[in-house]
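Contributing new records

If you add data, match the layout below exactly. Sequence lines come first and carry their own label; structure lines follow with theirs. Keep one chain per record. Anything else will be rejected by the validation script.
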Amino acid sequence: MKVIASFLLTLALVSTAFAGACPPEAAGTFPSFLASIQASSDKLIASATSTLVWRVIGNADENRPTITKLRSTDFRAKISSNWPASNSQLKVRSSGAKDKEATVVVAKPDTDYQLVFYFRRLGNCWRLTEVEDQSL
């Protein structure tokens, strides 16, 4: 059952990723793509799949993560002040690209604030597929 659910999620991500054109900066290597999106939250938003998974880990009300699916327009409102281009106190750390996946951690030093951005190479285009809020 878990394999089927994973397959369906992957299929949904692939189909939604190709709904829009691939931004030019998303077609290159991951390091060049990361440099481009660090400078502009608009470029990050343009790279998102049309439906994005937003997972909140540190939910005080429950012991399990809260998962929300956001349209790119809703994602824009959430990310506007939570990306280094608009908040110089935030620091970025990348795990680099492995196969067709990459992870970027955005954190504010000396606080519990941390967002993890998951990217996947779909076709020849880097797409943001999921955000995990690990803040407490």
